[in-house]
Design goal:
By secondary structure, this protein is an alpha+beta fold. Helices cover 37% and strands 22% of the residues. It has three domains: 111 residues, Rossmann fold, CATH 3.40.50; 69 residues, Dna Ligase, domain 1 (2-Layer Sandwich), CATH 3.30.1490; 130 residues, ATP-grasp fold, B domain (D-amino Acid Aminotransferase, Chain A, domain 1), CATH 3.30.470.20. The chain is built from 13 helices and 14 strands. The protein is globular, with a radius of gyration of 21 Å. The termini are far apart.
């Protein structure tokens, strides 16, 4: 008797500045899933937040829905009943950025009792907020860059105070970032006060919370992939050599000139320290399933800082997360199998918990 296929929903698109990145990631995931093992159900979310699923009743062997999203011919969405999601065995949210990587979709799936790949609600929310994750790592004495943060509303009311605070506590050059965004959307490198004000105004277009970090000099950008639940494993570290001044959106996806060196040319001591820090950051952030941890290494002093963690890292053909695992001995399709297995295992473990309580007597 043929083994029953696992029905997996691939959710992509979404209301995020990383919508297009999500489409490319989803395409790579769908193409790499073994159709002998999985019945693939593509589910798209438009930029307006409308959900679309085609031919849910049938096994999906083509990418018509994904193609429509990529070509921009989705004019109007349809309401997707929650019970459709409950008919899936597992969900893989390939949603980068807001409303997908921040705990919102994870909360929905928790409410519907559906297994899903990646971090839970708390881990996702922490992983999305660059301020909160730094505060947690700081409390655990993990190395981070110097930073300040503030709300956009506060900046509009107290411009001079915020600028004075930033220039007193941090040195140029600085990086200005929306606290909750990915793929370097809305990020600027600044060298003076004029650029600083301009960068803050740009960042406030993408988030109400802004973080400003002191740039690491003589920097090398190192990344590690982490895989697992309670006992995570870590890949070999890789290095990103950006074609631009820093690894911005264009350098990541558009220009095609940045390159990755895997494994990174590091001493045994630094390589071990980076891998150890990646696991610690993963655990402290309450992650599960997968994450990519990014580091900044001062090549002159050897100082290492954790930059950020990504709980739904890119899964495109050029993305570091799967490439790091491939060089570490785990092929793309095997990686997907592992992530799906981890999702189901975590869900089964939670199912053993008691969610009801019977009082000694009826008091209500």
């Amino acid at each position: 008797m043929a083994k029953k296929k696992i029905k997996i929903g691939i959710i992509f698109g979404g209301r995020s500045g990383e919508h297009e990145v999500s489409l490319v990631s989803a395409e790579s995931v769908i193409k790499s899933l073994d159709q002998k093992k999985y019945e693939i159900v593509p589910i798209g979310i438009t930029k307006r937040g409308e959900w679309i699923a085609e031919n849910f009743q049938l096994p999906i062997s083509n990418y018509q829905l994904l193609d429509k999203f990529k070509k921009g011919i989705i004019r109007r969405g349809s309401k997707l009943p929650p019970e459709i999601l409950t008919r899936l065995d597992v969900v893989f949210p390939v949603l980068h950025g807001s409303f997908g990587e921040d705990g919102t979709i994870q909360g929905l799936l928790e409410m519907l009792d559906v297994p899903y790949v990646g971090a839970g609600v708390l881990g996702s929310a922490i992983g999305m907020d660059k301020v909160v994750q730094k505060q947690l790592w700081q409390q655990a004495n993990l190395p981070i860059v110097k930073y300040e943060w503030f709300l956009a509303k506060e900046f509009s009311r107290r411009v001079l105070y915020i600028l004075r605070r930033l220039t007193q506590n941090l040195k140029y050059p600085m990086f200005v970032k929306p606290a909750n965004s990915g793929s370097s959307v809305g990020i600027s490198k600044v060298r003076d006060k004029i650029e600083l004000v301009r960068a803050i105004k740009l960042a406030t277009q993408y988030d109400r919370k802004i973080i400003v970090e002191q740039a690491v000099l003589n920097v090398r950008e190192i990344e590690c992939s982490v895989l697992g639940n309670d006992e995570p494993k870590v890949s070999l570290p890789g290095e990103i050599i950006s074609c631009n001044e820093f690894y911005d959106y264009d350098a990541k996806y558009v220009d095609g000139k940045s390159r990755a060196v895997i494994p990174a040319d590091l001493s045994i001591k630094i390589r071990k320290k980076i891998r150890d820090l990646a696991v610690k950051a993963f655990i402290i952030t309450n992650c599960a399933g997968m994450a990519r941890v990014d580091f900044l290494l001062n090549q002159k002093t050897g100082e290492i800082c954790i930059n950020e963690i990504n709980t739904i890292p890119g899964f495109t053909s050029i993305s570091m997360y799967p490439k790091l695992w491939q060089v570490s001995g785990l092929e793309y399709s095997q990686l997907l199998d592992s992530l799906i297995k981890l999702a189901i295992e975590r869900h089964q473990e939670k199912k053993k918990l008691q969610f009801h309580y019977q009082p000694k007597k009826k008091w209500y």
